[in-house]
Structures are given as C-alpha cells and as structure tokens.
Amino acid sequence: MGVSGSGKTTVGTMLGEKLGLPYRDGDDLHPQTNIDKMARGEALDDDDRWPWLKLVGQWLHQQESGGIIGCSALKRSYRDLIRSAAPGVKFVHVHGTEELLSERMNARTGHFMPPSLLKSQLETLEPLGADEDGLVVDIADSPKVIAQKAADWLTG
C-alpha cells in the first residue's frame, strides 16, 4: 500500500518473485472512468474507490495460496473493506517524504496519475493503526532492500 510514486509496483513485483506468489497491479482493476478522472488531475472520491476496492479484495480472496497486489489503500475504511473480502491480509506500506515521492512522480513517464494529485493522496492517507497487521518501510531504501524487509517480515 502507499500513495502514487511510492514504488508499489516495483516492490510488489520483486516481493512476488521472492515469495513465489502472483503479483497484480491494483491500477489494472480501476474502471476506465477512474483512470480518466485521475488523468484529468481530479482526485478520486470514496464513491469512485469502493467498487475498485471490492475488486482488490476479491482478487486477493481468489488467490488460494496467497498473492500480492499493489493498491493505495489510503484509509483505514478502505483496508477494512479489503480485509472483509480477504481476511488475514497483511499490508506493507511503502512510504517516504513528500519531496522524494514528488521527485519520483515527476521523473516517470506514461503513467495516468499526474504529480498534482500527490498532495490529495497524502492528505487522505491514514497510517496503519497499531491494531492493523502491517509493516511500514521507507522508500529511501532501494526496492531490493524494501522487498527483502517485507519478505522477512511476512515469512518471519
């Protein structure tokens, strides 16, 4: 989980390879209307997100041997919805400073999410609660180090 530009896809792909689990980019489950809205620089609201989050939870539930999905899961209520479909899900929150996130978003090409939406995502973000099964990792580390930390935590 994490805001756009945090490395969810890169880390998730590496983590899936390390653990021998399928990886899915949650962005692939967004309806075109959500993608178009974000591409126009408009932040999604809860009504936009609920159907998408249900698909995220369903995909995880369907992975009988486990799976990894990159998904923002910015609010506790979003994570609760995912957990309702996939009990036992664990969250790895890839997080960093606004400056580093902005730098990464501005450097990438071909992604529908414009850097202008980073601030709204950070304002929406609710950190993992002490009672949530999750790990926070700093994106200042390399994706390889992050994936290893997450793998160690998940298998430890």
UniProtKB/TrEMBL annotation:
<dbReference type="InterPro" id="IPR031322">
    <property type="entry name" value="Shikimate/glucono_kinase"/>
</dbReference>
<dbReference type="InterPro" id="IPR006001">
    <property type="entry name" value="Therm_gnt_kin"/>
</dbReference>
<keyword id="KW-0547">Nucleotide-binding</keyword>
<keyword id="KW-0067">ATP-binding</keyword>
<dbReference type="GO" id="GO:0016301">
    <property type="term" value="F:kinase activity"/>
</dbReference>
<dbReference type="Pfam" id="PF01202">
    <property type="entry name" value="SKI"/>
</dbReference>
<keyword id="KW-0808">Transferase</keyword>
<comment type="similarity">
    <text>Belongs to the gluconokinase GntK/GntV family.</text>
</comment>
<dbReference type="InterPro" id="IPR027417">
    <property type="entry name" value="P-loop_NTPase"/>
</dbReference>
<keyword id="KW-0418">Kinase</keyword>
<protein>
    <recommendedName>
        <fullName>Gluconokinase</fullName>
        <ecNumber>2.7.1.12</ecNumber>
    </recommendedName>
</protein>
<comment type="pathway">
    <text>Carbohydrate acid metabolism.</text>
</comment>
